[in-house]
Amino acid sequence: MCGRYTLTKTTGSQLAARFSVADPARFEQATLGRFNVCPTERIAVVCGEDGSRVAHTVRWGLVPPWARRLGAGPEPINARSETAAARRPFAALLPRADRRCLVLADGWYEWLRTEHGRGDRVPFRYTVAGGAPFAFAGLWDATWVGDERVASATILTTAANDVCAPVHDRMPCVLDGSEAEAAWLSADATAADLAELLAPLPAALTAAAPASPAVNRAGVEGAELLDPSHQRPEPPAQLALGI
User: Fold this and answer.
1) Which residue range forms the structural domain that includes residue 77?
2) What is the mean pLDDT of residues 141-146?
3) Strand pairing of 170-172 and 148-159?
4) What mean pLDDT comes out for the span 85-93?
5) Any idea what the CATH number is for the domain that residue 135 is in?
6) What's residue 221's pLDDT?
7) pTM of the full structure
8) Looking at 27-31, 34-38, 68-72, 102-106, which range is the least confident one?
């Protein structure tokens, strides 16, 4: 699975060059320079539109078309690639090139439980090709929730490769380079083509390193989260009232 990830690049021009995006200014700055991207937050995705690629900002967690308000029901952040073609709401999106997207990242986290199941889980960050930016295979949609049109996305997952398996049996579907990214966005992709793209990333391209336990908390940010020696700040002690 993928419950947290990183996109540490800070400028849209870097990502525009890597993912062949026509207008770098469309990258929302709040989605960049992130070390702890969490569900329901705004994230950077790239979609194919009229023969070009366009950056969009969407909510992480697919809001189904029958939702009446945000957070009132399931908003899946992940979808199993093996069953997406047969399950709502993913089945209506997967065959449509205009609903497939690239979710931009440069790492993701998984957590290893302690031996006795007590205490904080140990976070690991996974990177690809030495820490270069990459794309998760994503599905997106837009629906009206009240008076607001909400665009949202989910990340597809697959079986873990040999690097990821010791910590978790699932991993996000990482598209293996620019050709795979183009194929994922292509209107000519068949069901068989899509299934092949959603295979586990080769283990040789994947690396794992421990991260700071501070990443266990949503809302915590900063490059220090990549340092396993960085600890979560202690909350201030409560003041005792004298009598």
Assistant:
1) 4-226
2) 91
3) antiparallel
4) 95
5) 3.90.1680.10
6) 95
7) 0.91
8) 68-72
Residue 23 lies in a domain: yes
Q: Name residue 46's beta-bridge partners.
A: 55, 102
Task: Report which residue type is found at 175.
Answer: L
Please check whether residue 232 lies inside any domain of the structure.
no
Say if 152 falls within a structural domain.
yes
Count of structural domains, the chain = 1
Quick one: average pLDDT of 9-25? 94
Residue-wise pLDDT for 48-57, tens only, equals 988 899 999 9
- Structural domain includes residue 126: yes
Residue 79 to residue 155: CA distance in whole angstroms: 6
